[in-house]
Design goal:
The protein is built from ten helices and eight strands. The protein has helices at about 10-35, 60-75, 80-85, 105-115, 150-170, 175-180, 220-245, 265-290, 295-315, 320-335, and strands spanning about 55-60, 95, 100, 185-190, 195, 205-210, 255, 260-265.
Length: about 325
């Protein structure tokens, strides 16, 4: 069956399982590298390797530990190594449940903070006066970039997130299944740098900026729905790419449909994939509520940006056969 950008029933559980199995295998090799690099007895770290999960999901912090340990070995950052190894001693698995929370100053928040400062994670407010050239960013950004929200605000956002998921279940249940499979936590935060964020560095955790709309309004709900669709789509594409790379010229840079700077082809493919899904969901929502002019405008904006992204990918992307299938499905969506 050809691969598609559209959510497909039953696909997410297979992809999540495959991604987690790849992580388990990678951990074994990585821990052996740690033993070799730091002259530890062979197999001395085998006991801390994560165990496979059957009817549950791997703990998101294990993705973070894997990233930190790999970076520590490559860059000889020994100070980062021990905390990441200690994290492996806890339970490997967590229930397939969604928790709505905020910043908690844990290992995942630290990884997210560093991700913002990385080349792949640069966000707005880091550009020169032309709006085109990103300014240098550094580790150790101020905490204001990911600010914890008050408990009462999180309580409200927890209720609104449940409403958003209810709306999505009526529009496309397969997308809600992806949320169920991939997303363990949504952390709402205050930020001047991001609207939303997810990464393989902390797979399973999604950051969403507090909605700009007034609490309790339809506009607030639209922001939350869009944020969930956007970041879940990134996670789904990460899981797809664990099975097939899709994009081969990942580092070549071109204009982005979602950012003001030029982005690597990998990022442009991600953005285009997300836009196709946003257009898909917003189209279904417009069909259900045709008198909502804000939804109509949001769908049109997604379509316009999608066309730009598809032009860049089709003209410049070097894709695998599966990548071509996904691209073709996105192009067909514009003809529907």
């Amino acid at each position: 069956m050809p691969w598609s950008f559209r959510p497909e029933h039953g696909r997410a559980v297979q992809l999540r399982s495959g991604l987690e199995q790849e992580l388990y295998s990678s951990f074994i090799n990585l821990l052996e590298r740690v033993e070799l690099a730091f002259q530890l007895p062979r197999h001395s770290l085998a006991q801390v390797a994560p165990l496979s999960c059957r009817d549950s999901a791997i703990r998101p912090s294990l993705f973070t530990s894997h990233w930190i340990i790999g970076t520590a070995v490559e860059c000889n950052r020994t100070d980062d190594l021990l905390p990441a190894l200690r994290e492996l001693r806890g339970e490997s698995c967590v229930p397939l449940e969604l928790v709505v929370s905020t910043r908690s100053d844990d290992m995942i928040d630290a990884a997210a903070q560093e991700y913002i400062a990385s080349d792949e994670g640069q966000r707005k407010a880091h550009y020169d006066s032309t709006g085109l050239q990103p300014l240098p960013v550094h580790r150790g950004l101020t905490d204001s970039n990911l600010t914890a929200l008050p408990r009462l605000e999180i309580d409200n956002l927890r209720e609104r997130t449940a409403e958003a998921l209810h709306i999505l279940s009526g529009l496309d249940p397969s997308l809600v299944d992806e949320v169920h499979q991939y997303v363990r936590q949504i952390r709402f935060i205050g930020s001047d740098r991001i609207g939303g964020m997810s990464s393989v560095r902390f797979f399973g955790v999604v950051y969403l900026r507090r909605p700009s709309a007034m609490p309790g309004t339809f506009e607030e709900l639209v922001e939350i729905v869009n944020g969930i669709v956007h970041e879940t789509s990134h996670l789904h594409l990460h899981a797809l790419m664990a099975a097939d790379p899709l994009v081969l010229n990942v580092s070549d840079r071109f204009p982005s449909p979602l950012r003001r700077d030029h982005r690597p082809m990998l990022g442009i493919f991600h953005a285009t994939f997300v836009l196709a899904r946003l257009m898909h969901i917003l189209g279904l929502w417009v069909a259900a509520e045709p008198n909502r002019e804000d939804l109509v405008a949001a769908r049109l904006d997604a379509e316009t940006r999608l066309r730009n992204g598809l032009t860049t990918v089709s003209e410049n992307g070097v894709l695998t056969p599966r990548g071509e299938e996904v691209l073709a499905s996105m192009e067909q969506a514009l003809l529907a």
